[in-house]
Structure formats: structure tokens, C-alpha cells
Amino acid sequence: MQHSVRIPLNNTFAKGGYCARVHIGQHQHPVNLVLDTGSSTLAVHNGSYQPERDDALQATSLAQDVIYGKGGWYGPVVNTTVSMGLPGHRAVLDRVNVAVTAKEQAQSFIDADGILGLAYEGLNPAYDIAPYLQDKQVSPALSYPFLMDTAQHPDSVRQYREFLHQYPRHPVTPYFTQLEEHGVVANQFALLTHRSSVYQTHTHSPLEKLTSHHLNHGLFVLGKPKLHLDLYHEPFHSIKVLDDKYYNVDLLGLQLGETPKLAAPKLAADQVKGCRTNAIVDSGSTLLVLPPGLFDALMLQFYALNPGFKALLAPFQSFSGEEVGIPLAQLNLKEWPPLYLDFTGEQGQSVRLTLSPQTYWQIHAPQPNQAYFKLTTMPSWPNQSILGLPLLNNYYCLFDRSASGTGAIRFAAKRDFSGQLLGHLCQEFST
């Protein structure tokens, strides 16, 4: 029977990205996995999961690899039991496809134990290396535990990708799709988040204190998010998902306060195959990334509104890979206007969402009494915007994959958590 499950989230392990506590294997070992609507693979660090202790593990001949903007990994695919949720309110499923990382690049998951991709099957390929295993006289011809001996595979992650991709490509059903297909939950989920950077309370705050701060919490609602009336205010504003490679949407343009609207560029002809549309909604991104031309035009509007903004925004003119803040005393958020984003709606109409100054600026980040600007661009970036947590933080965000065609994303005003729920959140991540 389908049911709906609330799962606590915390953003301290992935430096702003939201992690859920997931239990893997027969021993139900707890791991913290980053929730990412921009990918589809469930991957867990070998040392965090301890597959050698899992009597529920069933090995396969498949292997996977993923390269992120920062980091990457490769490893075998196994099947095992996965559960999520609080005691008495869990989603449990056997024979879940889990990739176990044999080798990782630095910073692949930061301090999290892995990643849980929430996108579609097209982003979750594996490769069947049975011919290679048979040639190596591995019997039975299974990728686990053979690939865990990295001494036999000295290649870097990027080099190993070239080797791996010569073998037959095999689609792997993502975890959320498996849940829905087995009738565990409905084909919907929602995210309720507050921040895109960790809220820093004091210099050298221990992880336990940061973990317990309510602004560093969130909720993941698996299945039927509209039932949770205490988490949002109606109405919902729905934008159409135009392609299910990612959660691909059509960004029409931006408007900064009352300034003239800026049209979002369309994809160039050579970008259509890879990008599909000019924007994606990506919970795994702690930034809102704009194409260079659109970003530059927006910066000029900020400067025209207030010449003093130029000096404050100077450190943030391109993505550096690291959070570097400005003194918080220099920032008066009351002077900064909202940023409006216009999309093609579910019925073809224009739908407007709002990015507040409190979310495109993150205060007390990356250090106490600092502020970090969350809009960025990268040189040679295609005409595609990555709409990450700075947008999602403003809403209760319902990803409705059951909507006609390729789905819709629905945004409603969020409510704050109850004190009782906050206590459960703290308990979940302190154990």
C-alpha cells in the first residue's frame, strides 16, 4: 500500500547540500546521502556502508561511474535493502540498486557518505563488465568484490571511465523509481529547505551544534506531499517539466525588482542534444548558475540600482569553487530587491517565482558574521541555468512525476516546522 513518509534532512555534512539519513543492508547501517535532483544514482562510500558485513547483498556484473563538477567515482553495482524515514514511518525496499564506490576523487561527497539521485533512468547507466571479469578468470563473474581491490585498478576515475565505457551499456532503475514501481510510495516527492549554505553560529562551532540549528534542517517527503498540510500554504504554482533527462524546465526570463525584464537565452543549436532545455531544477546545486550573458546583464542592473552594490559583488563574478564571504556588517538586505524568475507553466502560461534577498545572499556563511552571494556563472557555460537551492529554499517544492507527460514541479509557500518535529530532526542526526 502506498504511503507518505517524512524524512529529516540536514545540510551540514555536504556544506549546504541537504542529506537524508538512509539505512542500507541487512544490518541497516546509517549513512548520510546528498539528495540530488540533478542525478539518478544511489552511490555510497565503501567505508561508510561496509558491504562485506551485509548478508542481504547480491552482487552483479555491473559497474558505474559518475563525474561531477567537483569530484567523481567508480565502483560495482550491488542489490540490497534500503530504508528511509523515522521509526514506525519508514519506506523499505529490497533489491535496491546501490553503487559502492571503489575509488573516489577528493570532495566527491564532501563529508557526506554518498549521494541519492532523484532524477530519471536516463542519467543512471551502468556497464556490464562480465566479459572483462571472465577474461580475468573471476568466478563468479561479479563486479563486487573484485573492483574493490583498487591495487588491481590503478587508473584515476577519469581514466577508468574510458575503460569502463567500452562495455555494453545497461540501464539501472533509480531508487525512487523502484519505490514507485513497487507501490511503496506515490510518484511524487517534496523538499522543504531553508538554506543553501550552512548557518554558522560561532567560530569553530562543533558539528553537533551546527547540526541542531533549525536553519540547517529540512524535510524530504516521499509520496503524496499534498497530504502534509502543516508544511505549506496553498496555492501551488506549477511549472512544466519539458524533458526527463533532468528536471528540465523553460526559463523565460528574470526581473530584478522593478527593473526591465531580462530574457533568458535559448539554447544554441549544438547545445540542444546535451542540455534539452535552457534550465534545470537541481537540488544538488548550492548555487544558482546563470549563462554568462544573462549573469552580466543582471549584474549591471544591480549596479544601476545602487552603485555601492558593485564593490560588494566584486568577489562573486565567477565561480571559484570555494565559498568566500564578505563582512556581514557591510550588507543591508533591506536595500536588495527580490529577483523574479518567469517560467513556462504546466498549462503553457507564464508562472513567476520569487528569489528573496535572504536566499540569494546567505548570512553567517561561510563563517560567522560573513555573507555569501549565491548567484554565479562560469566561463563558456552553455545557455542553461542551473536552478539550485537558492530558488528551492523559498518554497515547499513538490516534484510531481505523475503529472501528464514528463511531469511538473509545484511551488507553494512553506510553513515552519513544529517544535516536536524539530526534536525528531535533532535526534536523527545526533545518533
From TrEMBL:
Pfam family, one: Asp
Endpoints of the signal sequence: none
InterPro entries assigned to the protein according to its UniProt record, in alphabetical order: Aspartic_peptidase_A1, Pepsin-like_dom, PEPTIDASE_A1, Peptidase_aspartic_dom_sf
Single Gene Ontology MF annotation: aspartic-type endopeptidase activity
The keyword Ion transport belongs to this UniProt entry's keyword annotation: no
Peptidase A1 domain: residues covered: 18-412
SUPFAM superfamilies xrefs: Acid proteases
Keywords: Aspartyl protease, Hydrolase, Protease, Signal, Zymogen
GO biological-process terms attached to the record: proteolysis
Homology family: Belongs to the peptidase A1 family.
Protein name per Swiss-Prot or TrEMBL: A1 family peptidase
Organism listed in the record: Bowmanella dokdonensis
